[in-house]
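ok so heres the complex, two chains, lmk if somethin looks off
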Amino acid sequence: MGTTSVVQIRNLTKRIGNKTLVSGLTFDIPKGEVFGFLGPNGAGKTTTIRMMVGLMKITEGQVLIKGKDVEKDFEAAMTEVGAIVENPEMYKFISGYDNLVHFSRMHKNVGKERIDEVIRLVGLENRIHDKVKTYSLGMRQRLGLAQALLHKPSVLILDEPTNGLDPAGIRELRDHLRMLAKQEGLSVIVSSHLLSEMELMCDRIAVIQNGKLIDVKPVREMVGVEDQTVVSFDVSNAEEAVKLMQQIVDQQTDITVQADAVEVALTRDQIAEVNRQLVLAGINVYGIRTVTKSLEDRFLEMTGGGQIV
Amino acid sequence: MFNLIRNENMKIYKRPRTWIMLGVLIIAVALQLFITHRYFAQPTEGVDWKQEMTQQTQMMKQNLAENPDIDEDYRKFQEAKIKMNDYNIEHNIAPFDYTAWKFAEEASGLVFLVTLFTVIVAGDSVATEFGWGTIKMLLVRPVSRTKILYSKYVSTLIYALLLLVTLLVVSFVLGGLVFGFSGVEQPFLYVDQSNNLQEMNMAGKVLMSFGLQAVTSLIIVTIAFMISASFRSSSLAISLSIFVMFAGTFVVQILARYEWVKYILFTNIDLSMYFTGTPMVEGMTLTFSIIVLTVYFVAMHAIAWLMFTKRDVAA
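and the predicted structre for the whole thing:
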């Protein structure tokens, strides 16, 4: 039993009829970690999250939040959880402030000061007394975050929080979450199928497919810091360039041609060497750019092409 | 629990339609008052009501005297009617004499509007949370689903009570302003189940009319609430309960020839039949109806509770 684990998931399984939606998930989330939950649509992310917050019954296994069982000790467990399941749906016909008052009444010890504090934290001071129906999606997302933080939870669970947000909104949310994890020691669980986003947001990522856990790894390892980087050369004569490169690199190395760009995996020194040879051979080099192997590629590799179930 | 009810009340009273329905109820009272004042509270011109009533009484007496082998029930009913007319003539109470009491008693017919409007609130109560998606915000709190369900039920009943009290007060006050507040000493006369003439205190009669109709209202509203909590659809809850409200008695009449009809909810829903009317099926008693209503009431709550607390939220 890791004492620092805020969330412990043990053999979590959900079956409806004879369909197994989630099967035998087991992982821990320590204090202050932003944990990503990644998988294609229908992989079982939302089902897992719904079981964690008590919206769905657990068929087998258990979820412990700060050691409290979500099923057996629901009220104690939920005191430690702030959640947004899918979109941050709020009551549109009342003001943002009234929404917060509404949810604050469902917790113990959330006073007016705390409400104001949370409003400042998410930066909604100017519009908080307007009706929610006048809010943009980004503002609703902030209000959603505010309601989830009201009772100072130990863990924040966000299901697809970047859905429908524009790039600025996503960036803002990302900064918020990182700040909360760092400054307040909050553990954050984020589910998404937006792979590139997870890469920037999370410390650790679990990949789930067909209801099964495929891998849990720190983001750094997943994205991969390797000796070689894939480099794309934008040149005037691709064929000539390929021939030249074959003389420099190993035989096994893949060299791919895309229009006038040649992609090849090289070490730092090799990049300079290839460039020199190209120039000497009279080939115009218009650009050299590294192609980072993104989480997306890793993900597709791991899930074997990511067929949507 | 108190805080949860405050939340539900906030969600009810911050919606404009809540106040619109209250307004419509008041307008309905005003309309009924206007019609009563214009058409029923005026003596017919050139007709002396006492003379007419005396004539009517004499005809009834004559009819009874000429047919000695007339049906016993019918005879008793006619005799009670004769006594009622005599009383009115003697005390100079014309049929077009209205008082605040008499008007309020008649306005209790508008309780069906209270039912209708509360059904809308009850039908929406649980279902719209699912429709809006806010149910996911509501159920991930350190509060049991049971408490959430009952805070919604209680706040719905508070709204029903608000409408009911408004109806009673507005009809009494408006009626009094038009017809005067006196007349509480006039008894309310009616012919009971065994065709005897009975009299009842007027204020008591007003309260009883409202009270008995409130029972009907409570049952219909509970049906709407149960459907709302079970099927998570407001349109189904509202339309089905309104249908049931109007079609219930009709169905009972169709099935009246069967003995088991007395176990149907709608046969028992109008308790006023035991006070100023005749029971739907012979042999039914007030206690019987109260037991039947209680059984249905508990069953509906059990279904609502099971369906709301045990099912997964996938919306």
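quick notes: DSSP finds eleven helices and 14 strands in chain A. thats all i got rn
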